[in-house]
Amino acid sequence: MSFVSAEFIVFALIVIPLYFLVAQRWRLIALLVASYVFYAGWRAPYLLLIVFSTLVDYLAALGIHRTPQEQVSRRRLLLLCSIAANLGVLFVFKYFNLFSAAASDVAAVLGISHEARLLHLALPVGISFYTFQSMAYTIDVYRGRLSACQNLGTFALYVAFFPQLVAGPIERATNMLPQFARKLAVDYDRIVDGLRFVLWGLFKKLVTADRLAIYVDAVYGDLQSHSGLSLIVATLFFTFQIYCDFSGYSDIAIGLARLMGFDLMRNFKRPYLARSISEFWRRWHISLSTWFRDYVYISLGGNRKGLPRQVFNILLVFALSGLWHGANWTFAIWGIYHGAIVAIETVLRACRVRLVPRNALGHMIKLFCAFAFVYIGWILFRANRIEDIEYILQHISDFSEGFAGLTDPFSAGLLPQRLEFFISFVLIGFLLAVDVVDEHAGINSHFARLPVVWRWTVYYLFLIAIYISLFYQATKQEFIYFQF
Fold this sequence. Notes:
Order of helices and strands: HHHHHHHHHHHHHHHHHH
Number of helices: 18
Helix content: 55-70%
Shape: globular
Number of strands: 0
Structural class: mainly alpha
Radius of gyration: 24 Å
């Protein structure tokens, strides 16, 4: 049941009002049932995996909480059981085939006959998100950051809360569990703010990301027919497609949660205005980058064991972060690529080396270089195979065809190809303008000061564009991060 489906609209129109209509003591139960129904709409049998993760981490955390601090081995064993159960499920459904094929390739190189055994299992939607969220809770209890939740239903809702269940943000129990315990009433300002988040998220997803996806899919799905400008444009479009797609989902999730009185963490903070790759990762998919920082990087020693060890920790964490995105070596390469740049930036800072001046020109150089490095990285991320990466890097500078056929990939668009092409650049410019204003002055405060007529004109224009994209666009695009 996708956020951009008619089924979900009906679901939300029933669940959100019902949440406030039922008695206070039944609200969380009603919300938990609704969350399970929401997930069952994807593939009902896989609901058992969420229940499994919930029970394992609930019981493990209770055991850790009730075990005296002196019994370190028992507490550690309970924690390891939680981690093994979560990562075990993730490995079977997401990574088994990748590593089985890799083992077969290694055996072939060594002259050993070994046939890869593949599991034909559909990847459960959102499994990487809810397993990491549930596992983080157990780790926090083990570290003493919070007490174990005594109510199984409340903890189950934390794991399965439907707005952020299938694509984040990867929430922390320290943020969500206290919110589930408080009494909530209808708040007009929160409802307006929530609806504004939902509207902006839908606009980014349906009007911008899905339009760019038409061009991107046409080019990356048939790379041999493209070179030069079409590869450059397709990668530029993907750079903004994935941002609008993923941040659009996060905005919708934040808005839906806010409608019901809950606050989810911010997952994006204008990432393409970053001045370094390190800063980019403080602005992009914040819930994942902070998860790896808090539960992997710091656990490995962080920056406390010298610069060489810190560089190693950075590279390992980014390689794991890349693989988190999917069972494909292109994701690992993408993660290592980003990790290498962050490691270089770390070494330069440690050596106090400054490559550009601290002035307006230096600021612009940093913005351009950071965006260029991110742009190149998206080639690694979007390519379907390593061979595709090689082809793109070899042909992206081939301009022999000039502008011929540059707009052809928009043949599946709703409007004429040239108009779709023009609108795409306008939308990208609009998105960047909004982010720039938000960076320096706060877009919400500016928008709130507009006359009512102007605000509602914007709302209606957005709604019309969303309606046309939702019901009349020729191709329907699922959220990119649902595959992770």
